[in-house]
Input
Amino acid sequence: MSQPATATMQTPDRRTARAQSHLKMIRAGVRSDRGIADVLGVSHSQVSRWRQGQRPDRANADRLAGLALVVEMLLRWLDADIVEEWLTGANAHLDGATPSYLIQHSRMAEVVGAVEAMKTGVFA
Output
């Protein structure tokens, strides 16, 4: 019988590298640290510190990963110049809430659902 899979924890260096990788992806659609900070609900200086190698706490690391995923999805359907506007604008698929508000409150599944609805042309 096979052994059950065990969870392995990432080392701090690996988590820092992953956060920096997420920031790079996010930057493809959100053009500034200030824009990233606004979407995530953190200070501009915090994003700068992450970019310089400070490891984000787990909650912000999760938000960075989620935002990187959403940006990657959006870049498949929208011009890069529109991504930040989509993230910060009211969204009918989210009952008028902004995707950034939901990202800040760790409601990533709803944001991904709104991206999927937009891709398929579903009208809210």
Remarks:
- The mean pLDDT is 91.
